[in-house]
Amino acid sequence: MIQLKRAYEQVSPTDGYRILVDRLWPRGMSKEKEALDLWLKEIAPSTELRKWFDHDPVKFPEFKTKYLLELQSGKAQAAFQELVQLTKEQPIITLIYSAKDEENNNAVILKEAIEKTA
């Protein structure tokens, strides 16, 4: 089971294995507050892609296409394979992200990609 949660929401026992999937640490949050099991920076969109997208919902379809391409190469591909493997080992995984938009962010794309792979 894969869940999504904003970094600013309270940690819950039902979160299971918590993985931060952003390249940047969430503003104003401490490592203790986040209670992460893993920070997979390499799986996050590249800095260039993140800046281009700028959380603009109009750009989300193109962002999704470009991000999925990034996940197919280099360090992002290795991180994606690691994440897929973790979903097989952990009963519950929560992908943690800091974007305000809960529908148009990289964690949503990751969850969908993992579910298609499994």
Automatic annotation (TrEMBL):
Name this polypeptide is given: MarR family transcriptional regulator
Pfam families named in the record: DUF488-N3i
Record PANTHER family: CYTOPLASMIC PROTEIN, CYTOPLASMIC PROTEIN-RELATED
